[in-house]
Automatic annotation (TrEMBL):
Protein name: Alanine racemase
Natural source organism: Mariprofundus ferrinatatus
CDD domains tied to this protein: PLPDE_III_AR
Ranges where the Alanine racemase C-terminal domain occurs: 250-373
PANTHER family hit by this protein: ALANINE RACEMASE, ALANINE RACEMASE, CATABOLIC-RELATED
Catalytic activity: L-alanine = D-alanine
């Protein structure tokens, strides 16, 4: 029996080595550079690194320990399941590493997970505080207020604050979230900041405050308060593109040319025959498709980077493949292909299809191997 298990492991290692080239290279040096840069921009405020959704698709198990090594001691995830997963990383098994649940808790099970894994939930509703109290939560909570985004946040902060007092649960701080920080001149930014200050001052002026996400750290650092919460900037996408601050891209999404084929005038490419050659062309078939996270809407629009040059995608992107026009280039089977990373930024790709880098990163498929470099 033991022998079988061993063989299975050996076999799976072999299979892994030979597997399809679909790789997200995670540049740890760049991640740590971004962390340090943001720490400097944040001044006296400390950093809660947002690593929810598998560290924005980059791989929580690679990203979180690297941030810990760079000096970060506070991390934000979505819910108790993500929090428990993060706590299970060996270097995270220490109480002074704070894990905040930005979406708080949903039920009794979540409250128990908070106790068991020493998690710090955000609370927006009094029932969450009662559940935590009943479960014997001895950690703290963030109280999360709405200041004008009209997403998740307590509508009546005083009620939530009073409930925290009744249950005796310690308050870690007050938190709110900005709707328009990536548009520095948007009037809602100041309105939200001032509303947040008013709420906090009325409840407890000395309780720590946290308002800014990545774009906020760049656009309105005067509101950094005690804790800032960068997500996207850690991963190297400039959050305010016309105010770049020198962030470095962390993810390079790479496939490989599987075949180069010649097609002639009138031949079409891929499903739906949406591209037709008007001359003899060389097309490269690349080893990644929409199931890997290449948005299908890039079909006939997007570029890839191969051997120092950009090439255009042609025809519809398939589940496992993307076709590229490499006419007369000398591109060959085996060449590495970058979808986004060092040469084409995720922001550039996102702009082509009217989306944001967040959706590209979090859309990277589970079957893509994340490798730290
Ligand atoms: C409450 C909260 N804080 C911080 C962040 C990080 O935002 P960003 O990735 O824009 O820095 C998020 C992300 O959605 C969030 O929901």
């Amino acid at each position: 029996m033991e022998q079988d298990a061993f063989d299975l492991q050996a076999n799976s290692d072999k299979i892994h080595c030979m597997s399809r080239p679909a790789i997200a290279r995670i540049n740890i040096g760049h991640l740590q550079h971004n962390y340090r840069l943001l720490s400097n921009l944040a001044g006296h405020a400390s950093i809660m690194a947002i690593v929810k959704a598998n560290a924005y698709g980059h791989g929580q198990n690679l990203v979180a320990p690297a941030l810990l090594e760079a000096g970060c001691r506070s991390f934000g995830v979505t819910d108790a399941t993500e929090g428990a997963e993060l706590r299970s990383i060996p270097s995270f098994n220490q109480d002074h590493v704070e894990i905040t649940l930005l979406s708080g808790i949903f039920d009794e099970e979540d409250a128990k997970l908070c106790v068991q894994h020493h998690l710090t939930p955000a609370a927006t509703e009094p029932f969450q505080l009662s559940l935590l109290a009943k479960s014997g939560h001895r950690g703290k909570v963030w109280l999360k207020f709405d200041s004008g985004m009209n997403r998740l946040g307590a509508e009546t902060p005083s009620e939530l604050y009073a409930m925290a007092g009744e249950t005796g649960i310690d308050i870690r701080g007050f938190m709110s979230h900005l709707a328009c920080a990536d548009e520095p001149d948007h009037p809602l930014n100041r309105i939200q900041a001032e509303r947040f200050i008013t709420i906090c001052d009325q409840l407890s002026p000395n309780t720590p405050k946290s308002l800014l996400n990545s774009a906020g750290i760049i656009a309105m650092p005067q509101y950094a308060f005690d804790v800032v919460r960068p997500g996207i900037a850690l991963y190297g996408a400039e959050p305010v593109p016309d105010r770049p601050v020198g962030l470095k891209p962390v993810m390079s999404l790479n496939g490989e040319v599987m075949q180069v084929r010649q097609i002639h005038t009138g031949a079409s490419v891929s499903y739906g025959a949406t591209f037709t050659a008007d001359k003899t062309m060389d097309i490269a078939v690349v080893s990644m498709g929409y199931a890997d996270g290449i948005p299908r809407s890039l079909s006939n629009i997007g570029d890839v980077h191969i051997r120092g040059q950009k090439y255009q995608m042609i025809g519809r992107i398939c589940m496992d493949y993307t076709m590229v026009d490499v006419t007369g280039s000398g591109v060959r089977a085996g060449d590495s292909v970058e979808f986004w990373g060092e040469h084409i930024s995720a922001n550039q790709v996102a702009a082509e299809i009217d989306t944001i880098s967040y959706t590209l990163f979090t859309g990277v498929g589970e079957r893509v191997r994340r490798i730290a470099v």
